[in-house]
Amino acid sequence: MIEMADKDQKAVLLESALRIADATDGEKVFLFLSVKEDVEWFGQAVIDGCDRVVLVVPKQLTIRDATFGSRCSGIIRNWSGNQSRFSRIKYAFLHAVMAGIIQPSSKVVCVLGPHGKSHLDTITIHDLRHSWSEEFPFEVEALFNNKAFHTIMAVVDIALDIGALGREGKSVGTIFLIGDALRVMESSRQVVFNPFRGYPKKDRLITLPQVVESLKELAKLDGAIIIASDGTVEAAGRHLETAPVSEKKFGGLGARHRSAAGITRKTESVAVVVSESTGKVTIFERGRILATLEPVISRRMV
Hints:
With about 300 residues, the chain is an alpha/beta fold. It has 2 domains: about 10-130, Pyruvate kinase, C-terminal domain (Pyruvate Kinase, Chain: A, domain 1, 3-Layer(aba) Sandwich), CATH 3.40.1380; about 145-295, YojJ-like (1 (3-Layer(aba) Sandwich). It contains 9 helices and 12 strands. It has helices spanning about 10-25, 35-45, 65-70, 85-100, 140-145, 150-165, 180-185, 210-220, 255-265; strands at about 30, 55-60, 75-80, 105-110, 120-125, 175-180, 190, 225, 235-240, 270-275, 280-285, 290-295. Strands 7-9-8-6-10-11-12 form a 7-stranded mixed beta sheet, with helices on both faces. It has a 5-stranded mixed beta sheet with strand order 3-2-1-4-5, sandwiched between helices. The longest helix has 17 residues, at about 150-165. The chain is elongated, with a radius of gyration of 20 Å.
């Protein structure tokens, strides 16, 4: 299947993953490559079935889509920071659905290794229709049909940065609420001066680098950050006045997560919560945990 003089471990694993995909009706094989040398290796390998391989590479890795686009099914640019392996997979799936590479019901095989290393050592098999476990929830079909999906994914990137790096060396926890902004504002009150008040809409979009940096800084404030479905930041420093949930299934979560579950049960918003203690990013919708993403904490003091 792969024509090379001496098959290295990358080649053996990719060959095995393609066979597993055949045997399990897998639609795609996601190949996670962390360094430029590995991408170049893929470009030189002769692969039978490359139309089913999706390259997943860090955002900061400079490669030309035109060079590899004809050799694979698609290219996904993953969040640049270090995440746990399951977190990297879940993040890639979200972006692949957003790009139309896979469907919410797809079966996928993944090949990956340690973050930032030229080493592959793991093959996983996934059916996106089923959540993996309570420890690694992934029930995100509702997000795919949400009109704010692109905004939610942009916020997830910001949240992962905050979770991994904190701010100025210190851990930070916060809540982002996306969508149904009017009802969320009606169900909350300002606890500090709203830093976005008075600015025109065009200056409050999360597609702007200066707004992204402002949000990371404002995450240190008490209260939630409110963002409209179209990516317009409405407010920061909002105290949520809905009752936090109290079910036993949320027993291990703190007040911030319980409040996020409560507000998403009352409104049609989606909450993205950063845990101050662990850096974990949790996505809530209608009072349920849809997914967790686990950045690896670096350069911060808990």
